[in-house]
Design brief:
By secondary structure, the chain is mainly alpha-helical. It has a single domain, classed as Jann2411-like fold. Helix content is 50%, strand content 10%. It has six helices and four strands, in the order H-H-H-H-E-E-H-E-E-H. It is globular, with a radius of gyration of 18 Å. The chain starts with 7 loop residues before the first helix and ends with a helix.
């Protein structure tokens, strides 16, 4: 459970954005085909229309690139606001409350279940970013601190201390490297 006041669906969507953006940042492309896209969508409970064709896969990859640019600009609030507003506009977001048997808490949907997948995903992801912006918490959007990793993460810790992603065991690798460096320096003394 997070220490922030983001709603459950905002946190879930922020995690979904991280995973999506990271599908081409660690160990190559991980959205090669519809099987991989379906695995991602099912893992985060995306509902509604799925065309399951190359055009849909390409549209989701284009959305991924767009979302990654939001992360890249997280230190420039005005720019991120412009990007999020553009995404909300391009997806024609129209919020409405709903709940499902598998998620009984009220939450927002921002596009019709009949809209294209990228549009539904983009609208909900833009709204999650809007919540982050409204809370003054853009600094929680980070890139992994490991020197050999470009993965993104959302730091939901109370004190904003998270530095490493979940994709490549980066935190453990950095801690082991630092330990070995300290040990080596101690042995040389």
């Amino acid at each position: 459970m997070s220490q922030l006041n983001f709603s459950h669906d905002t946190e879930l969507t922020l995690r979904a954005v991280c995973v999506l953006v990271n599908t081409d940042r660690v160990d190559g492309e991980h959205l090669d085909d519809m099987v991989q896209l379906d695995g991602y969508l099912d893992g985060f409970g995306w509902t509604g229309r799925r065309d399951r064709d190359d055009a849909e896969l390409d549209a989701v990859r284009q959305l991924r690139t767009r979302l990654g640019k939001i992360w890249s600009n997280a230190d420039d609030e005005e720019r991120v606001v412009g990007q999020v507003n553009a995404l909300l506009s391009d997806t024609r977001a129209a919020p409405w409350l709903t709940r499902h048997a598998e998620m009984p808490e009220w939450h927002l949907h921002l596009a019709s279940i009949h809209d294209p997948l990228w549009q539904r995903m983009g609208a909900e992801m833009a709204m999650a970013f809007a919540d982050v912006i409204r809370a003054g918490e853009l600094r929680r959007l980070k890139t992994c601190a490991a020197p050999d990793c470009d993965a993104v993460l959302v730091d939901l810790s109370r004190n904003r201390s998270r530095m490493f992603c979940d994709t490549g065991n980066c935190g453990n690798r950095q801690h082991v490297a630092a330990y070995r460096e300290r040990r080596s320096a101690a042995e040389e003394s």
